[in-house]
Design brief:
The chain is 10% helix and 40% strand. It is mainly β. It has one domain (4-81). The strands form 2 sheets. A 5-stranded antiparallel sheet has the order 1-4-5-6-7, with helices on one face. The longest helix is centred in the N-terminal third of the chain and has 8 residues, at 10-17. The chain is globular, with a radius of gyration of 12 Å. The termini are far apart.
Length: 84
Amino acid sequence: MEALDGNAIAGALFDAFGTEMTTASGTCATCRTHRRLAELNVYLRGPGMVARCPSCGSVVLVLVQIRGVTCVDATGLAVLQPEP
């Protein structure tokens, strides 16, 4: 399965956070690499959308849409910083 970049989940992130989040920065909880969410490796096949750290491959975000609500699991992020 081929990975897309974080822009592939821009709409789901907007639904969840109410603002543009692909320009936000995040720190991987596993390897501590700090990057913009647009740089994550995203996989869309499966029951949800999975975003992995491009450095270590750890799952940093999982987004699932349930009954029209976007649910986010961001336990793989040590820090999430929206752009000012």
